[in-house]
Design goal:
This protein is of the alpha/beta class. Among the domains are: 34-114 and 344-446 and 479-503, 3-Layer(aba) Sandwich (Rossmann fold); 604-731, Barwin-like endoglucanases (Beta Barrel). It contains 24 helices and 23 strands. The strands form six sheets. The protein has a six-stranded mixed β-sheet, covered by helices on one side. Strand 11, helix 16 (409-417) and strand 12 form a beta-alpha-beta unit. Helix 5 (124-134) runs parallel beside helix 13 (310-323) and helix 8 packs antiparallel against helix 11 (269-276). It starts with 22 loop residues before the first helix and ends with a strand. The structure holds ligand MGD (2 copies) and molybdenum atom (MO).
Length: 733
């Protein structure tokens, strides 16, 4: 009999602290022993999506998969096989679900390859855009806040989305006890990270952070508060002096801010106030405070980049760190999200994918519906000018982005239901999720906690750790491990020797662990590690500082940008802007300008759908995972946040059942009337399980926000703009 206990090893000392489970970790037994868990392999008997299944044997299931995979590869080629994105097991090794490095990927790599993707649902826009400025996307570790005098969070909510004891909040609290850093939170919502800890909350309209940044830049420039020596030495394109010759006259940042650029608009606080919803005087005060309090840690979460103009916003926020010279120093930050110290970790080798074509992660529904129409210049296909074949086979292992977590569920439903398009969908999960309902074959997996595996550290500031988990229980019913499933398929496909290399799951763990020990001799011996279960190591350098070497010697340690410097003006982006095919109002720009983007505050569509809707990552779930645990549901109700002013105008009272709708669909849930959200904005915890009669009215009754999000991608990353939504809200009458 096992219980869930917290890590109790060592003294709970800052930097070598105990890794305490969050709400979800503490309820893991309720997931493991949940009566709804999948027990047997099943095949679809009704229409796709109807969720009518019949129990079959493992042999029958595996034979069917092998036969269909062989047929589809023969008929359409390996490019027609897709492994869908999934974050269900991001911490794991043998069990890891990441699409390009999972056991499913290893199997496909041994079998001729598969169509892969680039980017993630988490941070497609920032991963694409930030490197144009810095060459990479790096931030200081949160623990470095111990050296800060001021912390400014743009839509960063670690209290909720880094909430375990190993997480960021712990550091934030402890570090601020030492440094006494003031904390300013800029977020449309009064988040849990604020919750009384903040010195100031500044509500901002979603998607307008770049306008705020531009107006603050205006104050800093006109009041002589910028770090001019830093801009001259380390940056390209701040003013005339460092503007690349290929750029147009007055194409530099200073001209854009002062109104000497193309648009002739000075980005004054007065200009930004009606866009952002932040009073002019607040913008001025904030700009002065950031520019004069050093070091200042400017950090953004990923909610602001999961938007239609996310690529521009992330670079605009970074400008504040650049203008004030806070990059590359202790207590400062680049403007990117916080990072964590990591100890070496070796994954089992997934092999090389012979298929080089990649789609943007968010574009897979289009690749199913109209694959050969997708091109490099219009849709961001990489490795080829265009796709040759549509997706015909989908692997969906430990993910729910097949339906619930992807945008516009009603469109996805139509695409997936058509069996002439995608011919086979294999789902491997623990539950009959929204995605699993669309499976042709549904395979019941063991959970990570039911098998031996190595888990690398997630966010723990200046501490790295490794967990070696052992099965907490024996396998029940006909649940099998992913390694067993893929090995059995390899047998049927005639690639068993390549796939297993003669190793068992335990042999692979030994193999990767020995490699880790070569990289870090501090790791104990295998058997010892197995017995102790956890290994922790403090960052010997103290705290991570992004771009520290560059700051110290930019000649010797250039950035990975083409110029080796911080590119405020990016010639690479200017080139893309000239060659890519974009639909209005999409824009790619060499400077980090403000542009409203589709479904933004200034989109004319707001006349019809007047509310901006953002989602947020909820403490009661990991996306949709844990969404079926009753005590977590009770403690973390699914409700839409609505300001009292809007509620009064709409006659909505706290707890009333409301409908949210737009051109994509409708979802219903109770309202939470609260001043914790600014007027004109609604917020839903993302990830609730879709519950709709798809043969009838298609109305969702569980506040699953992806029935009202769009599949239109962002301009540069072709990423998911799931925070850019315009909707109407009404009382259910
Ligand atoms: N408990 C829990 N933790 C999680 C997850 C989870 O589902 N549950 N998911 C994990 C994963 S995979 C990821 S990718 C991360 C996600 O991490 P994030 O993407 O950073 O999380 P979000 O909650 O989407 O957004 C953070 C904050 O941004 C605010 N925000 C939204 N739009 C804007 C805007 O335009 N401007 C500003 N200034 N703020 C804005 C939101 O109100 C929210 O408070 O969290 C991880 N951690
Ligand atoms: N509207 C909106 N949509 C969003 C977001 C948003 O902010 N707003 N955020 C996006 C982001 S950042 C992300 S990362 C994605 C996340 O989307 P997903 O990666 O799909 O994450 P989950 O919904 O947690 O789904 C994980 C699945 O893995 C399964 N699983 C868990 N453990 C195991 C296991 O041991 N074995 C197997 N086989 N399965 C297991 C769970 O049952 C669940 O079905 O969602 C994206 N979607
Ligand atoms: Mo994510």
């Amino acid at each position: 009999m096992y219980r869930v206990e917290t890590d109790n090893t060592g003294l709970d000392i800052y930097g070598n602290h105990q890794i305490r489970a969050c709400l979800r970790g503490r309820s893991i037994r309720r997931v493991m022993n949940h009566p709804d868990r999948l027990k047997y392999p099943m095949k679809r008997v009704g229409k796709r999506g109807e969720a009518k299944f019949e129990r079959i044997s493992w042999d029958e299931a595996l034979d069917m998969i092998a036969t269909n995979l062989q047929r589809i590869v023969q008929e359409y080629g390996n490019e027609a096989v897709y492994i869908n994105y999934s974050s269900g097991i991001s911490a794991g090794n043998i069990t890891r679900s990441s699409a390009s490095t999972s056991m499913v990927a290893r199997l496909m790599n041994c079998y001729g390859g598969f169509l892969s993707h680039y980017g993630t649902y988490s941070r497609a826009q920032i991963l694409t855009a930030m490197p144009y400025t810095y060459g990479t996307n790096q931030g200081n570790s949160t623990s470095d806040i111990i050296n800060s005098k001021l912390v400014v969070y743009f839509g960063n909510n670690p209290m909720e989305n880094r909430s375990s004891g190993a997480g960021v909040t712990y550091h934030l609290e402890q570090a601020r006890e030492v440094s006494r850093a003031k904390m300013i939170i800029i977020d449309p919502r009064y988040s849990d990270t604020a919750a009384g800890r903040e010195d100031e909350w500044i509500p901002i309209r979603p998607g307008t952070d770049a306008a705020l940044a531009a107006a603050m830049a205006y104050v800093m420039i006109t009041e002589n508060l910028v770090d001019q020596p830093f801009l001259d030495k380390y940056c390209v394109g701040y003013d005339e002096k460092t503007l690349p010759p290929s750029a147009p006259k007055n194409g530099h940042y200073k001209a854009y801010i002062l109104g000497d650029g193309d648009d002739r608009i000075a980005k004054t606080p007065k200009w930004a106030a009606p866009i952002t919803g932040i009073p002019e005087q607040t913008i001025i005060r904030l700009a002065r405070e950031i520019a004069t309090t050093k070091p200042c840690c400017i950090t953004q979460g990923w909610g602001i980049q999961r938007q239609s103009n996310g690529e521009l916003s992330v670079r605009a926020v970074a400008m504040l760190a650049i203008l004030t010279g806070n990059v590359g120093i202790h207590g400062g930050n680049s403007g990117a999200r916080e990072e964590t110290y990591k100890i070496p970790f070796t994954y089992f080798p997934a092999g090389k994918n012979p298929v080089k074509t990649k789609i943007p992660v968010f574009m897979w529904t289009d690749a199913v519906a109209r694959g050969p129409e997708l091109t490099a210049l219009h849709d961001g296909i990489k490795g080829k000018d265009k796709l040759n074949v549509p997706i015909k086979f989908i692997w969906n292992y430990a993910g729910n982005t097949l339906v619930n977590q992807h945008s516009d569920i009603n469109r996805t439903h139509d695409i997936l239901q058509d069996e002439s398009k995608c011919e086979m969908i294999v789902v491997i999960d623990n539950f009959l999720t929204s995605s699993a309902r669309y499976a042709d074959l549904l395979l019941p997996d063991l959970m990570v906690a039911e098998q031996a595996d190595l888990t690398p550290n997630e966010y723990a500031g200046n501490m790295g750790y490794l967990i070696f988990g052992q099965p907490a229980t024996t396998p029940k019913f006909e649940r099998r491990s992913i390694y067993w499933m893929m090995s059995e398929l390899a047998k049927r496909l005639g690639i068993e020797a390549q796939f297993t290399e003669g190793r068992s799951q335990e042999d692979w763990l030994k193999f990767v662990y020995e490699d880790m020990r070569k990289k870090l001799p501090d790791f104990p011996e295998y058997e010892q590690m197995k017995a102790q279960g956890i290994f922790k190591k403090r960052d010997p350098k103290g705290h991570l500082v992004a771009y520290k070497a560059f700051r110290e010697d930019p000649e010797k340690n250039p950035l990975k940008t083409p110029s080796g410097k911080i590119e405020i003006y990016s010639e690479s982006l200017a080139k893309l802007a000239a060659t890519w095919q974009l639909e209005a109002p999409d824009i790619i720009h060499p400077l980090p300008i403000y542009h409203y983007g589709f479904n933004g505050y200034e989109d004319p569509k707001r006349r019809q759908y007047p509310f901006q809707l953002v989602g947020f990552h909820y403490k009661g779930r990991t996306h949709s995972s844990y969404g079926n645990v009753a005590i977590l549901q009770a403690a973390n109700p699914q409700e839409v946040w609505l300001n009292p002013l809007d509620a009064a105008a709409k006659n909505i009272t706290d707890g009333a059942f409301v409908r949210l709708f737009n051109e994509h669909g409708e979802t219903r849930l109770p309202a939470k009337v609260t001043p914790r959200i600014m007027p004109g904005v609604l917020a839903i915890p993302q990830g609730a399980w879709h519950q709709a009669d798809m043969a009838g009215d298609k109305i969702d009754h569980n506040g699953s926000m992806n029935v009202i999000t769009t599949q239109r991608p962002s301009p540069l990353a072709k990423g998911n703009p799931q925070q850019s939504n315009l909707v109407q809200i009404e009382l259910v009458g």
